[in-house]
Structures are given as structure tokens and as C-alpha cells.
Design goal:
- It is a single chain.
- By secondary structure, the chain is mainly α.
- The protein has a domain of about 200 residues.
- It is built from twelve helices and no strands.
- It is globular and about 75 Å long.
Length: about 375
């Protein structure tokens, strides 16, 4: 009877998650192929963006809030509600400080690096061309073919930069978009604070709604799958964030010591793209190598060697210690999840594909193991 009940629960969990996944993919396909519906969905998304920001910020800050509440304030004699209030405000304050440090230190350096690169772009192209010509990397016929293509590309990029910089309409448009984004983000932070403060009541209300509208067995399956999904995402996002932060800082320190040009820009690119498993390091390394190739081909070679060593250290030492069994997927399944996620939802899909597939993998694995145990079959 016990195994029968477990089997039913597992099948129900798989059904819930599979149906949810199919609905998400179907909805995404539908809105991308039906123009009017896409416009309506986009308008709804824009209207709800402060709440989406709020949920996202609360999700990211919740682990920090728990550390403050249970580890730092756990042994104090404060009331539970007081601990939660202090922890919620503390987590939000630390998040704001981190953003301030990021924007006040790294962003100006990144902007300066981008401006310097754009202003020197044509000179870099000429230097790279002379380097390849003087070292006979390409035949004369190939160079004659490539030169007009390179000249046209440089001219188009220069025109694009000039038009972007001089276009008042473009500046106004981007200013309005930026202002709206900042406003939505600020409202989202306030919403996130309310979510962190009222987490228990919100969970209780959601349970009431589910139990009122759905059968008890289905509700329990939804709640269990939700807990599994949240725990998996929490572990994965927190682990990858810490791992990527360490990689970005290491990259910045070592590249500064190597006197590598555009160190802040390259370090941020490497750190951010490192959030994507397996393919992330390559996505960050390729544009960085191309930039350095224009500036100094030997620096590009040095960086290529450095990034290979750094990723080996990350993959074999840093990553496993931080992430541990956060995902628990074999490498082949990780690659499958990234490819499918990227094909459906782009860069975001490459990131969320791994934890989503991990949840599916856990549910299916539980079902398979229970079926094997029921049949008394052991596979080595």
C-alpha cells in the first residue's frame, strides 16, 4: 500500500511538472506566432514588470535574509517577527550596497574602456591588418579579398556609432527606457521587501487557494514540486552567483597584474557569462579574445592561455566546492538542458534550462527507482 501511494504521488508530481513545462513552451510558441496576442502579452508584462522585478529580487535576497535571521540573529532574544524585519531590511540594504559598489566602481571603468575601444577601433583594425600582412598569415589573394570587406565593416560600424551618438531621438528614447526601468526596479525593491516580510502569510494564502480549488492529492503534488523547484533554483543561482563573482574578481586581479588592456570590461564579461554552465566561459572568452586580437595579438594569446587555466581551476576546484550537488545532473544532461533552453528562450533559457531539467530529472529518477524497488530489481 505504501509503495502504491508513493508511486501515485510520483506520477502526480511528474504530471504536474510536465504539464506546466508543456504549457510554458506552448504559450511561448503561441505568443511568438500570433502578433496581436504578442502585443497584448507584452503590454501585460510591462504593466506587471514591477511585480516581476519584486519577485525576482525577493528570490535572490531570500537566502541572505535567512542567513541573517537564523545564523546571525538566531541566538539573540529578539522576537521572531523582529528578527524577520531586521533580516529583511538588512538583506535589502546589503543588496543595495553591492549594486552601489558595482555601479560606482566597475561601470565607469567599463564605459571608459568601451569609449576608448570605439575611438581607437579603426587604428586597431589597421594594426591587426599590418600584423597579419607582415607575418604572412594569409596569402596576397586572400588579403585582397578581405581588405574591402574589412574596410566596409569598419565604415559601417563607424557610421553606426556616429549616428547613435548624434541622434537626439535615440538618446531621448534610451533615456526614457532607462528611467522607466529604474523606476520599475525601485518599485520592485519595495515589493520585494513586502514579500520578504510577509513570506509566511503569502505561502499560507497560496495553500488555501490551491486546496480550495484543486483536489488534495493534486495540491500536495504541486506544493512538493514547487518546493523542489525553489530549492533547486536557490542552490543553483546562489552557487553560480558566488562562483561567477569569484571568477570575475580573480580575472580582474590577474589581468591587472598582466597589464591587460580593457581589464574591467573583460572581467565583467567573463564573470557574467560564467553564470551559464559549460558554454558560458566560451561565450565570454570569444568576444574578449577578438577585442584583444585587434589591440595586440600577443595579448590575445596570453589571455587565451590564462582563460583556459582559469576555467580548469573553476571547473575542478572552485565550482565543485561551491556548487557541490546543487544540480546533480550528468554533464551530458547539462549540455542537453542548455541547448534546448537556449533554442527556446535564448541566453535566459541557457541559464534556467539546467535547474528546470534538474527538477524533471529528480522527479523521473524517483519514479524509476521506486518502480525498480517494487520489482526487486537492482542495477549496478
Amino acid at each position: 500500500m505504501k509503495w502504491s501511494k508513493l508511486k501515485e504521488e510520483t506520477i502526480e508530481n511528474i504530471k504536474v511538472f510536465s504539464i506546466s513545462g508543456i504549457l510554458v513552451v506552448a504559450f511561448y510558441t503561441l505568443i511568438n506566432n500570433v502578433e496581436p496576442l504578442y502585443g497584448v502579452c507584452q503590454a501585460i508584462f510591462v504593466a506587471l514588470s514591477p511585480f516581476i522585478y519584486g519577485i525576482g529580487i525577493a528570490f535572490l535576497l531570500n537566502p541572505l535574509r535567512k542567513i541573517i535571521e537564523y545564523s546571525w540573529l538566531g541566538k539573540t532574544k529578539l522576537k521572531p517577527r523582529t528578527k524577520k524585519i531586521i533580516a529583511s531590511f538588512g538583506a535589502l540594504f546589503i543588496g543595495i550596497i553591492m549594486l552601489f559598489v558595482f555601479f560606482s566602481i566597475l561601470i565607469p571603468q567599463m564605459i571608459s574602456s568601451i569609449q576608448t575601444f570605439l575611438s581607437s577601433f579603426e587604428g586597431y583594425v589597421d594594426s591587426a591588418r599590418n600584423f597579419f600582412e607582415s607575418n604572412n598569415f594569409f596569402s596576397d589573394d586572400l588579403l585582397k579579398t578581405l581588405n574591402p570587406v574589412i574596410d566596409k565593416g569598419v565604415s559601417m560600424l563607424g557610421d553606426w556609432v556616429s549616428n547613435l551618438a548624434s541622434s537626439l531621438n535615440a538618446i531621448l528614447m534610451y533615456s526614457v527606457i532607462f528611467a522607466k526601468g529604474v523606476m520599475n526596479f525601485l518599485i520592485g525593491m519595495i515589493i520585494a521587501l513586502y514579500i520578504l516580510l510577509d513570506e509566511v502569510n503569502l505561502k499560507r494564502q497560496m495553500k488555501k487557494v490551491l486546496y480550495a480549488l484543486l483536489p488534495e492529492k493534486t495540491t500536495k503534488s504541486i506544493l512538493r514540486t514547487t518546493r523542489l523547484t525553489i530549492n533547486t533554483f536557490n542552490s543553483f543561482v546562489a552557487g553560480k552567483a558566488v562562483d561567477s563573482l569569484i571568477i570575475g574578481i580573480l580575472c580582474y586581479i590577474i589581468l591587472s597584474f598582466m597589464k591587460m588592456p580593457y581589464t574591467p570590461l573583460i572581467s565583467v564579461v567573463v564573470g557574467v557569462t560564467n553564470m551559464i554552465p559549460v558554454f558560458g566561459p566560451f561565450l565570454g572568452a570569444v568576444p574578449s579574445i577578438l577585442i584583444l586580437l585587434l589591440v595586440d595579438p600577443f595579448k590575445a594569446l596570453e589571455f587565451s592561455i590564462f582563460i583556459l587555466i582559469l576555467q580548469q581551476v573553476d571547473g575542478n576546484i572552485i565550482g565543485p566546492r561551491i556548487l557541490g550537488g546543487a544540480v546533480g545532473l550528468p554533464t551530458l544532461y547539462v549540455m542537453f538542458a542548455i541547448i534546448i533552453g537556449g533554442a527556446l528562450f535564448g541566453i535566459v533559457g541557457m541559464f534556467i534550462g539546467v535547474p528546470v531539467f534538474s527538477v524533471i530529472f529528480v522527479l523521473v529518477s524517483e519514479f524509476i527507482h521506486r518502480q525498480l524497488d517494487k520489482k526487486n530489481i537492482t542495477i549496478q
